[in-house]
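Bumping with the actual sequence this time:
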Amino acid sequence: GRDSLPLASAVHYFVAGGAPSPNRGVRRRGYYVLRKTKVPAVLVECGFLTNPTEGEYAETAAYREKLAEEIATGVRARNSVTASSSSPVATADSVPLQSYIDQTKTSNSERSHSRHSRKKKSRSSSTKKKSSSHAPEPEASLISSHWEV
């Protein structure tokens, strides 16, 4: 959606402050589910279930409730985000704009794992080619801004 950075900043500010997981920051990505919205949208990662510690946290209702409260606080505070770097903490009137990593201009090959790259090479050496029934998605950098927290 449009103007999602203030929403991402506010949600990130409150979730990162209340979660025991490492802070992975705010990232700009071109995910289909985010870029096809007409309103501000974010994807919130609250941990990884494959991580034993984070998986244990996710099993507790109190932890899930706390994360939900932090996300809701961020949503309510989205209009309070300011670009002022003089206040790195939230005040009654403002939440600081979070810095972010823009990954929409990263090519697919830069994002893929080496396992994926090996698969690609072995496929390209094959003499038999499969036809694709769908066109590739447009480059994420051509799409409006979307944010992942």
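The tokens above came from a reply further down the thread. The first strand starts at residue 26 and ends at 28.
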